[in-house]
From TrEMBL:
<keyword id="KW-0436">Ligase</keyword>
<feature type="active site" description="Acyl-ester intermediate">
    <location>
        <position position="165"/>
    </location>
</feature>
<keyword id="KW-0547">Nucleotide-binding</keyword>
<dbReference type="GO" id="GO:0006412">
    <property type="term" value="P:translation"/>
</dbReference>
<dbReference type="InterPro" id="IPR023631">
    <property type="entry name" value="Amidase_dom"/>
</dbReference>
<dbReference type="InterPro" id="IPR004412">
    <property type="entry name" value="GatA"/>
</dbReference>
<dbReference type="GO" id="GO:0016740">
    <property type="term" value="F:transferase activity"/>
</dbReference>
<dbReference type="Pfam" id="PF01425">
    <property type="entry name" value="Amidase"/>
</dbReference>
<feature type="active site" description="Charge relay system">
    <location>
        <position position="66"/>
    </location>
</feature>
<comment type="subunit">
    <text>Heterotrimer of A, B and C subunits.</text>
</comment>
<dbReference type="GO" id="GO:0005524">
    <property type="term" value="F:ATP binding"/>
</dbReference>
<feature type="active site" description="Charge relay system">
    <location>
        <position position="141"/>
    </location>
</feature>
<dbReference type="GO" id="GO:0030956">
    <property type="term" value="C:glutamyl-tRNA(Gln) amidotransferase complex"/>
</dbReference>
<keyword id="KW-0648">Protein biosynthesis</keyword>
<keyword id="KW-0808">Transferase</keyword>
<dbReference type="GO" id="GO:0050567">
    <property type="term" value="F:glutaminyl-tRNA synthase (glutamine-hydrolyzing) activity"/>
</dbReference>
<feature type="domain" description="Amidase">
    <location>
        <begin position="19"/>
        <end position="448"/>
    </location>
</feature>
């Protein structure tokens, strides 16, 4: 059952918040040992569920929260050995808002260490399996949240997206994922990877469920100076007819896709045409280079953000001689990919190379953004695949560059600060295919309106529950 349907049943008194929590907990205990979506469960869940006021708007809903989002009193590891035993004394704003509305944290989901990866294979603990195929990755870095939704271990989830980490796993697992406009969701309590790109994003199994989540978590927050003063109007935006929007298909994302992705794109265009949208092909010329700029800027910011894990203030402290020895022994516990990013980031920021790499990538970022702004004079939405192909097998992206290439179509929205939504739009064999819509800055609601029209026109044909449902 979808989250908004559960909520309606709770509101009618047909099921209690405790019964919902029990059903999901039981399902997690049965299925998660073979999936590996969760790193920790909320041990107080049932007690908390007993105390929920069923009149609250999100009463009865349990949420799977990516483990780089701080939960007070509940272990938060960011998928890293460095934070293996970290129990935050504070709560992320997004989580605090969900709790205030009656939702409960079911558990914390697996991810690539600090969000660095596209498969969960870089988790320091274990990889998560794709519920559609146990030999394949669920995507990443929010792979645990996406797999939990696909297996209906939770009706709602939070992820985070720095270069695609909400949208790519959503596509690989056949669910919805939104990367909001930068600043629409507070980053307070999100463990920083690349602060100018990071956004917490909702993930769910329907557009209405995403809207429910966004209305709860979005909006200005005094604890995050970059949060925007834009009140969320997601559920409201789903009412009324679909306006006759102009949809631009991004030319630079049309070649090199797998047959299932191509087919999904063609079929989606037919559906959108049928819904009264006008279609045209448009060019976002800098998009193909966005990946190169991202893999300079994100490591640069990461190298600065991760400097704090030196064994003195946060997380694990390893034994060592003097301060420098402690620092080295502690940092030795970072995984390989994290070390690689810190090295690259330190290099591109070092004197003599700063202008050649970091400076040029920043200038490129401004150009990419300006091109997008110009494009949105001509069209109201952009459409492109979320990924060039569906989920790949474990171990298939051992070369770091081949893993980075997974993010080809997703990093553009982060660099430009724009909202982007991945929605289920087809299958290639037994594997889900996702497509992506982008909207102008601050027009996140428009993405959901268009995706809802698609969902209704296709009669939820692309929503499957490969392992059955909790309800
Ligand atoms: N795969 C990308 C990276 O490794 C994006 C990750 C993310 O969005 N957190 O940087």
């Amino acid at each position: 059952m979808l989250a908004h349907e559960i909520r309606a049943r709770v509101a009618r008194g047909e099921v209690s918040p405790l019964e919902v929590a029990q059903a999901y907990l039981k399902r997690v205990q049965e299925l998660d040992p073979s999936l590996g979506a969760f790193l920790s469960l909320n041990e107080r869940l049932l007690q908390e569920a007993e105390g929920v006021d069923p009149r609250l708007p999100l009463a009865g809903l349990v949420v799977a929260v990516k483990d780089n989002i701080a939960t007070r009193g509940l272990r938060t590891t960011a998928g890293s050995r460095l934070l293996e035993n970290f129990v935050p004394p504070y709560e992320a704003t997004a989580v605090a808002r969900l709790r205030a509305l009656g939702a409960l944290v079911l558990g914390k989901t697996n991810l690539d260490e600090f969000g660095m990866g596209s498969s969960t294979e870089h988790s320091a603990f274990f990889p998560t399996k794709n519920p559609f195929d146990p030999h394949r990755v669920p995507g990443g870095s929010s792979g645990g949240s996406a797999a939990a939704l696909a297996a209906d271990l939770a009706p709602l989830a939070l992820g985070s997206d720095t270069g695609g980490s909400v949208r790519q796993p959503a596509a690989f697992c056949g669910v919805y994922g939104l990367k909001p406009t930068y600043g629409r969701v507070s980053r307070f309590g999100l463990i920083a990877y690349a602060s100018s790109l990071d956004q917490i994003g909702p993930m769910a199994r329907s557009v209405r469920d995403l809207a429910l989540l966004m209305d709860a978590v979005a909006g200005p927050d005094p604890l995050d100076a970059t949060s925007l003063d834009l009140p969320p109007r997601f559920q409201e935006a789903l009412e009324g007819p679909l306006p006759p929007l102009r949809l631009g298909v991004v030319r630079e994302a049309l070649a090199g896709n797998s047959p299932g992705v191509e087919r999904a794109l063609e079929e989606a265009l037919e559906v959108f045409r049928g819904l009264g949208l006008s279609l045209r092909e448009v060019s976002w010329p800098s998009l193909p280079q966005a990946l190169a700029a991202y893999y300079i800027l994100a490591p640069a910011e990461a190298s600065s953000n991760l400097a704090r894990y030196d064994g003195t203030l946060y997380g694990v402290r390893a034994e060592g001689e003097e301060v420098e020895g402690v620092r080295q022994a502690t940092r030795a516990r970072f995984g390989l990919e994290v070390k690689r990013r810190v090295l690259v980031g330190t290099f591109v920021l070092s004197s003599g190379y700063y202008e050649a790499y970091y400076g040029r990538a920043q200038a490129f970022r401004r150009r990419l953004k300006a091109e997008a702004r110009a494009l949105f004079q001509e069209v109201d939405l952009l459409l492109l695949p979320t990924t060039p192909h569906p989920a790949f097998p474990f171990g298939a992206r051992r070369d770091p560059l081949s893993m980075y290439r997974e993010d080809l179509y997703t990093v553009g929205a982060n660099l430009a600060g724009l909202p982007a939504l991945s929605f289920p739009a087809g299958f290639e064999g037994h594997l889900p295919v996702g497509l992506q819509l982008l909207a102008p800055w601050g027009e996140d609601e428009r993405l959901l309106r268009a995706a809802l029209a698609f969902e209704e026109a296709t009669d939820r044909a692309f929503l499957r529950a490969p392992l059955g449902e909790a309800f």
